[in-house]
Structures are given as structure tokens and as C-alpha cells.
Amino acid sequence: MKILTTSKGLFFSNIHQNFVSLYFESRFINYMKGKNFLIASSGIYPYVDNNDTAKLAYKIARVANSKGGQTRMFMPRFGTVNERKHQLHEVIRLSGVNIVIDDDDMPLIIKVASIPKERMQVYFIDNDEFFKRKFIFTDENNELFEDNDGRAVFFAKGIVETVKKLKWRPDYIFVFDWFTSLLPLYIKTYYKNEPLFHDAKIFVVLTDATFEKPMSEEIKNKLVFDELPEEIIQKYDNPTEINLLKNAIDLADGVIIRTQKLPEEIDQYLKEKNIEVLDLSGIDLDENEEDLKAKFIAAFEEKNPSN
């Protein structure tokens, strides 16, 4: 893993595991208290198990929530999620919106579950056509689903429509990997006049690459239908995982790295963009939650030195 540098001096790395003192803890609480954190991921622990991305999404929410922040987490209600075991239930007042995907009306169903002992809610974006199947991104033959592009658009729009119904204003938005990469795009374009998102800071979380090209070129047709700017649409000519992430980075305020196998192309792109980067690649999430907390404290200290 290369050390990425920026002129802003906001790259945080090599922080000692036992860095957390009472002094920094109190400052961290001040920064978190009253802030709203939106976390969007294709998986969140414990609804997706044995998955580092799902675990990190949960851990970030837990750290923020434990220090006075309010968190709302969003993931698709894949058919692999056991609704009875995790006690999911539909929220009628949030459901019922029809989301248009390439001229097709797709009903949005919102289900909610609470993570045991954490007082944190997870909102599940659901639609029978997109998410009922008992697989996530690939079928029983390990072939990518042809409608992953439509599923990603539906997920992004579904999050925004749900936030609008909740009348909840996020301060920080964390998007994990390629499947959520369209959320910054839609916030900055399709929903650019939605005041709830005007002041939100967006952070793209990079984890281990999973697919070379997770969605088809059909994504462009959906962006054209939604009348997104032509210069934006052109960026989706070749929707490889790397290109999807680069497009999300273009619209982000910062990047979090959670991989020791960062593609060289992304590495170089981050340097060229001169964007803020927080490195969480070396943390053992099972053993060192204090290390995760310490790096967030350091990040907030650097960005808010006068508080």
C-alpha cells in the first residue's frame, strides 16, 4: 500500500493503536454529537456475515452512534437476508413510492430492522423484481446479473426518496464500493435541488475489488432517461468497477481506503485528484475497534483544530 499524499495534508496513517486518551475522546464526542450519518452499503453486519465491507459499515455506524451521532444505514433487501431471523418489518408510511427506471415504474418497499443491543436501525431497500432472488450480484453459475445497473439505480433513488420521507438531513454520507457508487451521482445531479442533501459531505469507501465489469453499458440508457448531463453520461461508456469508483470519487469530499490491494489506477487517480484520504486498511475490525476510533479522532482533529 502506497502512502498517498495531498497538499491539504489530510492523509492519516500509522496511528498507534492505543492513541485514544480521555482528552481526544471528549473532543471526538463533541464532533459526533448531533451529527447525522448516512451509511449506504450492499451489505451490513449482521445481515451479511463474514464480509469485511459489511463489518466496516457496521463498525463506522457503531462508532458514530456511540458518541452521540445519529445513524441511518441502508442496504438492499437481498433474498439472502433472513427476514424472520432478523425481524424485518415493512414501514408502510415509507413504502409505496414508484421509482422510474428507464420508463418502468418500480414500486419501492421499505423494511426496517434494529441491530440487537446497538439501538441502530437498518433500512432495507426492497423490490420484488430486483431483490427477491436468492443471490446478490451473480446467479447460480456465477454470472453477473444483466440488470445490476437497474438495481444500482433503484437502490440510489430509493435511499434518497426514503430520506425525503423521513425529512432527515444527513451531515455525512458513506458509500461502499461500486454498487452504491451511483448515490453521489444522483445526489449531485438528479436530486441537486433537494435541500436535505445540500450540505452533506460524501465519502467513498474503497474495499477489495470484486468484479471487473459489474454492470452493462445499459446503464447509459437509464442515465439518459433521467436527463443527467451529457458530460456525466459519457463517463459511463465503459462501466468497469474501477471506472464506477472513479466517477464516484469525482463527486466525493473524501475517500476511505479499506484494502491493501488498491488498484494502481485508483492509487494514481487519488493522487491526481488531490482528495482527502483516510487509510483504514491495516485495522483488524474484530480485535481493534479502538484503532478505528483513533483514526477517526485524528481525522476530525486535523479538520477541526480549533474546536
Q: How is the topology of this model organized?
A:
Blueprint: E1 11-12, H1 22-32, E2 36-40, H2 52-66, E3 70-76, H3 83-86, E4 89-90, E5 98-101, E6 104-107, E7 109-115, E8 120-126, H4 128-131, H5 148-166, E9 172-176, H6 182-188, E10 201-206, H7 219-225, H8 230-233, H9 241-250, E11 254-257, H10 264-273, E12 276-279, H11 289-303
Parallel strand pairs: 1-12, 2-3, 2-9, 3-8, 9-10, 10-11, 11-12
Antiparallel strand pairs: 4-7, 5-6, 7-8
Helix pairs in contact: 1-11, 5-6, 9-10
Give the class from helix and strand content and strand pairing: alpha/beta
SSE topology string? EHEHEHEEEEEHHEHEHHHEHEH
Tell me, what's the shape?
A: globular
Number of strands: 12
What is the CATH C level class, in words?
Alpha Beta
**Which radius of gyration do the C-alpha atoms yield?**
19 Å
Cα-to-Cα separation, first versus last residue: 32 Å
Helix tally equals 11
Taken together, the total number of domains comes to: 1
CATH superfamily: Glycogen Phosphorylase B
Q: Strand fraction band?
A: 15-25%
- Which residues form runs of ≥5 with pLDDT under 50? 1-28
Overall pLDDT: 84
**Do you know the CATH architecture?**
3-Layer(aba) Sandwich
With strands numbered from the N-terminus, the spatial order across the biggest sheet is 1-12-11-10-9-2-3-8-7-4
Which fold name corresponds to the CATH topology? Rossmann fold
Major sheet, described briefly? 10 strands, mixed
